[in-house]
Amino acid sequence: MLGLVSNYKSDEHTIVGGELSLWLNRLVADDRERKGKLFLVRYNELEVYVIAEWLGKPKDVFVDVLNIGKSLGNFTSAEARELRNRLFNPIGSEETKRSMTQTDRDYYSNLQEEDSIETERQELVARGE
Predict the structure, then answer these.
(1) Where does the record place the region Disordered (predicted)?
(2) Among candidates 27, 34, 85, 30, which has minimal Cα distance to 55?
(3) Considering only CA atoms, which of 35, 37, 33, 29 is closest in space to residue 8?
(4) Spatial separation of the C-alpha atoms in residues 116 and 129, rounded to whole Å
(5) Pairwise CA distance, residues 40 & 24, whole Å
């Protein structure tokens, strides 16, 4: 969902106020490009909360910045650090490439491991064990 660009629709999205929204405004108060553009939105159908950024005027087009999950209680200091890094220290193309390559390796490694476990299980079944 991160990086997903959406058109705001009041029946699909709910803008959430409260302390976290106020904190988001304070976070970017000195950033001329982002001031007033960060907000907290709930995807009504998915029932998840996301920190998002307006790409143009408010209540138009926005991009997801950080998925919080189904509960605002999931937003911890670790997520706050992650948000700051994404906003103020975005990774470059080389870091993105390395991250994607590592993710692919992990995925295929897990597939191979699952395949070998399944093969071993089938051999045991064939022997009647």
Answers:
(1) 94-129
(2) 34
(3) 37
(4) 17
(5) 8
CB distance 53 to 31 below 8 Å: no
| Alpha-carbon span 52 to 48, nearest angstrom | 12
Pairing of strands 38-43, 13-16: antiparallel
Rg (CA), the chain: 20
AA identity, residue 44: N
pLDDT in tens, 10-63: 999 999 998 988 999 898 888 888 888 899 999 999 999 999 999 988 888 999
pTM beyond cutoff 0.85: no
Q: According to DSSP H, which parts of 47-92 are helical?
A: 77-88
Strand partners, 48: 43
3-state secondary structure of 63: strand
